[in-house]
C-alpha cells in the first residue's frame, strides 16, 4: 500500500538500513549536516542500540532521518530484528519516502548482507526497492584509488560486485546509487548530494511513501497510546478537580482548625477563669472555714457559759427547793403561828410564787438554750455537708477541666498531623500529575503521535515495542504453509531424506488415526520451490526434536481429553504436547514444546500422502494448511490420489513455484468463492 504526500505538508522521511560498520549513523549525520546527530564510531559492533529519529529543518521542508541498528547482522535473532523493524515503523508510522541501503566502499558484499536484504524483501515485499537508494560510504577511499588509477568508474564498481543477490537488488533499485564521503570537513556538500538524489526519487514517485499494513499496526499502537493518554488526561483533569476540591476542603479544614484554635483559646481562657474562680473559692472556703472555726469556738464558749449558768440556776433551784422544804417545815412547824402571822405568811406565799415564776422562766430559758444549741448543731452539720459537697464539686470540676484540656490537646495534635499528611499527599499527587501531564501532546497528527512516543520514558517505549513487535512478526510470517528444504522425512527403508531430495512416489512415514505407524507414497507436492525464502516457526521439544514449519501449516497437538487434534502452527504454545517418533524402539511419544523461535529458512515443500499425515523431523504433522480446511482438503485430494494411481504423471505438471497447475486453479476458485461470501471452504 502506498500513500500520497499532501503537497502542503513538505516533509522528507528517510530510513537508513545497512550492516554494522558500514557508516549508517555517519550518513545520518551527513544528511542532517550535524556530526553529533547520531552516535557513531569505528567499531565492528553496533553502536546504535535502538532506532533513533532526528528531525531538522532543511531547505524548505522538514527532514526526518531514522537510523536503525544492525538489521543486516544475521547474528541477531529474528526476534531482535523484528523489534528493530518495529521501532523504525513506530518512529515513522506513515512510512518513508526514501530508504538508504548503506554499503561500505572496498568491503566485499557478504552473503550475510545479501541474506539480510532478501529477508527484508520477504518481510516488506518488492515495493521496498521502489523507494531504495544504495549509498556507498567512504567515498574518500574511492577518490584516492581513482586518483591512483586503480578504481573503475562508480557504475562499473557497482556492476562488478560479484554477488547475484546484490545485482538482483541493484536492478530492482533501478541502479540508483550514490557515493558519499562522511569524513569530509564540510558536510554541506555531501548533504546536498544525498538530498538531491533523495528529492529526485521522491519526485519520480510523486511524493508517495513506502508503507504497508505493518506500518498501520504501529500507527494503531500509537493511537491506542494516545487514547490511553487522553483517558489519563481526563483522569488527570478529574484528579485536578479532586485536588482542587481537596484543597478547598483543606482550606475549610484549616478554617475549622483556626476556629477550633479560637475555641481552644476560649476554653483556655475559661480554664484560667475557672482556675481563678477555684483560687477565689479556695480563699472563700478558707475564710469561711476560719469564720466557722471562730463561730464554733464562740458556740462552744456560749455552751460552756450557758452550761455554767444552767448549773448555777440548778444550784439556785436546789437551794430554793431546799429553802422551800425548810420553809414548808417551818410552815408546818409554825402553821399555828401562821394564823397569827397571816400577813407574814401571805408575803412568804407571794415570795414563793415569785420564786416559782422565776423557776419557770429559768426552765423556759433553759429550753430555749437547748433548742438554740440543737439549731446550731444542725447548722454545723449542714455546713459540713455543704463543705463536703463543695469539695466534691470542686474535685469533679478540676478532673473535668483536666480531661477536657487533655482531650483538646490530643485532638489538636491529631488534626494537625492529619492536616500535614493530607497536604503532603496532595502535594505529591499534584507533582506526579504535573509530571505526567508534561508528557501529553495535543497534536493528533502522525508527527504528534511520534513526538508523544519519544516523550515517553524508556521503559514505556519498550512496552510499546514489545506490544507491537509480536503482531508485526505475526503479520510478517503469516504467508506460507510448508516445510523448509532441510526438513527431513523417514523412508520405508529407514533412510532419512531431506525435503529437497524427496520425490513423488517415495514412501514416507505416516501415522494412522489409531496411532499406528505406517509408510505411504507421496502422491503430490502442494509446493516444491527450493529457492524461496520464508519465515518458519521452529519448535523444540523436551526429547530434543526440532521441527521447522510454516505458521499456517497444521500439526498435531494433544488436547485436554488426551486425543490428538490438528492446530495451526501459529497457535501452538510452549508446554503444548506434540507427538514425536522414537527411532530406538520404533514407537511414538508425547513430548512438550520447550521453545519456539522464528527463523527465515530456504525452500518451500509440502508433500501429500493418502492419510494426510507425515512425520517430519521426528514430529507428527499434517499435510494440510490454512489454505483449505483440513476436512475439505482431505475430501478434495482423495480423488487426486486415485488419479495418481491411474496416471502418476498428472501431478508432475507444476507451475513456477512447484504448485500443480490444477491446484493453482482450485486456489483461484476458492478465492472467488470467498469473495462471494461462500464459507464452505472454512
From TrEMBL:
Residues 9-219 form the AIG1-type G domain. It comes from the Eukaryota. GO terms for biological process: cell-cell signaling; protein autoprocessing. Residues 212-443 form a coiled coil. Keywords: Coiled coil, Developmental protein, Nucleotide-binding, Signal. One of its GO terms (cellular component) is extracellular region. SUPFAM superfamilies: Hedgehog/intein (Hint) domain, P-loop containing nucleoside triphosphate hydrolases. Pfam families: AIG1, Hint. PROSITE patterns: G_AIG1 (PS51720). One of its GO terms (molecular function) is GTP binding. CDD domains: Hint. It is found in: Secreted, Extracellular space. PANTHER family: PROTEIN QUA-1-RELATED (PTHR46706). Belongs to the TRAFAC class TrmE-Era-EngA-EngB-Septin-like GTPase superfamily. AIG1/Toc34/Toc159-like paraseptin GTPase family. IAN subfamily. This is Protein Spindly-like. It comes from Lingula anatina. The lineage of its organism: Eukaryota, Metazoa, Spiralia, Lophotrochozoa, Brachiopoda.
